[in-house]
Amino acid sequence: MDAEERRRGILELARRTGSVDVSKLSAEFGVAKETVRRDLRLMEQHGLVRRTHGGAYPVESAGYETTLDFRTTRYVPEKQRIAAAAGDLVGDAETLFVDEGFTPQLIAQALPRTRPLTVVTASLATATSLARAESVTVLLLGGRVRGGTVATVGHWATHMLSGFVIDLAFIGANGISREYGLTTPDPVVSEVKAQAVRVARRRVFAGVHTKFGAGSFCRFAEVSDFETIITDSALPLAEAHRYSLMGPQVIRV
What we know:
Elements: H1 3-17, E1 20-21, H2 22-29, H3 33-45, E2 49-52, E3 55-58, H4 68-71, H5 76-87, E4 95-98, H6 102-110, E5 117-121, H7 124-130, E6 136-140, E7 144-146, E8 151-153, H8 155-162, E9 166-171, E10 175-177, E11 181-184, H9 187-199, E12 200-206, E13 218-221, E14 228-231, H10 237-244, E15 249-252
Parallel strand pairs: 4-5, 4-9, 5-6, 9-12, 12-14, 14-15
Antiparallel strand pairs: 1-3, 2-3, 7-8, 10-11, 11-13
């Protein structure tokens, strides 16, 4: 097996399992740990993985995106803390956009129930979870339903969004970086997110630390478009400060 084949094998394993370990890769491919580390450094430079202490995890791209089911198994305590902090930011907002994805789904569950709210979403899971709440009016965007995320996309969704003025949007992303802004692998998903950003008076990004520094295929917003970024405490304080210099308040929970 040459180096290119080995790196393809590493990437396939990372995408199948969600992460890889240097020691296990060394044993599996029969090469030195330093060789694996060089492979991972090169793969990170090409935007395929993000390295961690002792391993790496795959970056979502035009050719690879995790499903909603997979996301419900990763960093769940961190996502729950982020969602709770997001719920505290609603303030006097009466109309909300809640994005697709597992963290936004948790945010929907953390919304206040003590007064009327109107929630616009592309996520069938979020719409279903809020539908029985007496104080919440749910508007589900129309369009084609993506199987992996169970959310609507397409011109029906973006056209419907274009007719609203939304007080507060909770937005997710597959990657956020100071260089490339907020990104997602699929152009049709990017269009829905970009439209939500355009029609919202206030915008909050919510995502775990693994999103930071990652760049996917389609850019839909800039870091400076957001008043607040909520993430977990695993994002280094110095890095959080660098994002705050671009405009948003950065909350680590």
